[in-house]
């Protein structure tokens, strides 16, 4: 088993769960445009940037949309999403997640966020984790979203570690693909727990401790 120096976490679906908020916000925009949108389409948007997500939704749009209108509608989606996120609080952070993060830190591991979301810092503040992580690499700093490895490579650089010394924790196949493309091991959790790309298949968040050679909680 490898001796990792850093752990890089996706945010949505790993540290917290905001899929329902994304769905509600995109649904409002899709309904306004008369585009069919359901949860299976929403699942295709996980780990994908806001504009790329909108392009997926527009696959069912009857017409051609100007770039300025795309920007307007994605901005509207984000405002709806942020309003929904304002309902989040530290009670939305699982005690198991927080205890596991604390244990990893006690064992000397550097912790980072690697998320395509441009709202990562806002979400972390709502969860009571503002300033908790050693580094945050998010959609505000990258040009290419997952499965491109840019967000994870930046996170590794920000914590001063080589990619091969970092473990990525992801809940989406696109994120696992990004980790492997960046030369990193990956732990799959949630929907990604059974993915063949994962080096570790986590049924619970605290199983991450064993992957990182840490004593259990």
From TrEMBL:
Pfam families: Hydrolase. Its cofactor is Mg(2+). Mg(2+) binds at residues 10, 12, 170-171. It is an enzyme of class 5 (isomerase). It comes from the Bacteria. Substrate binds at residues 10-12, 26, 45-50, 53, 77, 115-119, 146. Belongs to the HAD-like hydrolase superfamily. CbbY/CbbZ/Gph/YieH family. This is Beta-phosphoglucomutase.
């Amino acid at each position: 088993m490898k001796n990792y120096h850093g752990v890089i976490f996706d945010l949505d679906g790993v540290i917290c769960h905001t899929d329902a908020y994304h769905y509600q916000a995109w649904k409002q925009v899709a309904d306004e445009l008369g585009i069919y949108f359901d949860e299976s389409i929403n699942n295709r948007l996980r780990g994908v940037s806001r504009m790329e997500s909108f392009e997926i939704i527009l696959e069912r749009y009857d017409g051609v949309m100007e770039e300025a209108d795309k920007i307007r509608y994605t901005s509207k989606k984000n405002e709806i999403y942020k309003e929904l996120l304002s309902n989040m609080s530290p009670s939305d952070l699982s005690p198991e997640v927080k205890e596991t993060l604390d244990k990893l830190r006690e064992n000397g591991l550097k912790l980072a966020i690697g998320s395509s979301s441009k709202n990562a810092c806002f979400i972390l503040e709502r969860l009571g984790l503002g300033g908790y992580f050693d580094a945050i690499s998010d959609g505000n700093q990258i040009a290419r979203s997952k499965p491109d490895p840019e967000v994870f490579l930046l996170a590794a650089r920000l914590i001063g570690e080589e990619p091969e010394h970092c473990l990525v924790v992801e809940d989406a196949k696109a994120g696992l693909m990004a980790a492997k493309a960046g030369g990193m091991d990956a732990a799959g959790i949630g929907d990604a727990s059974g993915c063949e790309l994962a080096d570790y298949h986590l049924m619970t968040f605290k199983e991450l401790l064993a992957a990182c050679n840490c004593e259990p909680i």
